[in-house]
From TrEMBL:
Domain Rieske: 58-151
Alphabetical UniProt keywords: 2Fe-2S, Disulfide bond, Iron, Iron-sulfur, Metal-binding, Signal
Record's protein name: Rieske (2Fe-2S) protein
The organism's taxonomic lineage, starting at the top: Bacteria, Bacillati, Actinomycetota, Actinomycetes, Mycobacteriales
Gene Ontology molecular function: 2 iron, 2 sulfur cluster binding; metal ion binding; monooxygenase activity; oxidoreductase activity, acting on paired donors, with incorporation or reduction of molecular oxygen
InterPro entries xref list: Rieske_2Fe-2S, Rieske_2Fe-2S_sf, Rieske_Fe-S_prot_C
GO CC, alphabetical: membrane
Stretches with biased composition (Low complexity): 41-51
Region (Disordered): 36-60
Length: 152
């Protein structure tokens, strides 16, 4: 009598059928496990007409667009927040929310709000006023150059 055996590299029909549900769900599991920063893109921030020159010069905005007691967002490849908490004193911050990186939007006065999850920040200090963000906005240098502010 002749005896046949299956080669060790060839799975049984039962093993193939048992693996099919896992193989079918694999693309869904991979898609659900990836994230994209574009999901946190701002949808309602209020960018100003400031210009961003990128590079070493930083972003520029006219001083007149930053009234005393308010904060504005400078849109660009690298968005910034610029504020004038008191007359002649300017501060600037990275506009990326410290929770998940969405660009914050300027509200009334010095209030900044993240459109993604509702974190609120003080535009004069960068401090968190309401979570889920736990860290303050990162401070960036700002200097006056005539009637413009240079940020970054």
């Amino acid at each position: 009598m002749m005896r046949t055996t299956q080669p060790t590299f060839c799975p049984t029909r039962r093993a193939v059928l048992a693996a099919l549900p896992g193989i079918a769900i694999l693309p869904v599991a991979v898609a659900c496990g990836t994230t994209s920063k574009t999901d946190d893109a701002p949808s309602g921030s209020t960018p100003t007409n400031g210009t961003s020159s990128g590079g070493a010069g930083g972003a520029r905005i006219p001083v007149a667009q930053v009234p005393v007691g308010s904060a504005v967002v400078i849109a660009g490849a690298k968005p910034y927040v610029v504020a004038q908490p008191t007359d002649g004193a300017f501060v600037a911050f990275d506009a990326a929310c410290t929770h998940q990186g969405a660009t914050v939007a300027a509200q009334d006065g010095l209030e900044l709000e993240c459109p993604a999850h509702g974190s609120r920040f003080n535009g004069g200090t960068g401090a968190v006023e309401k979570g889920p963000a736990k860290s303050a906005l990162a401070s960036v240098p700002v200097r006056r150059d005539g009637e413009e502010l240079v940020v970054g």
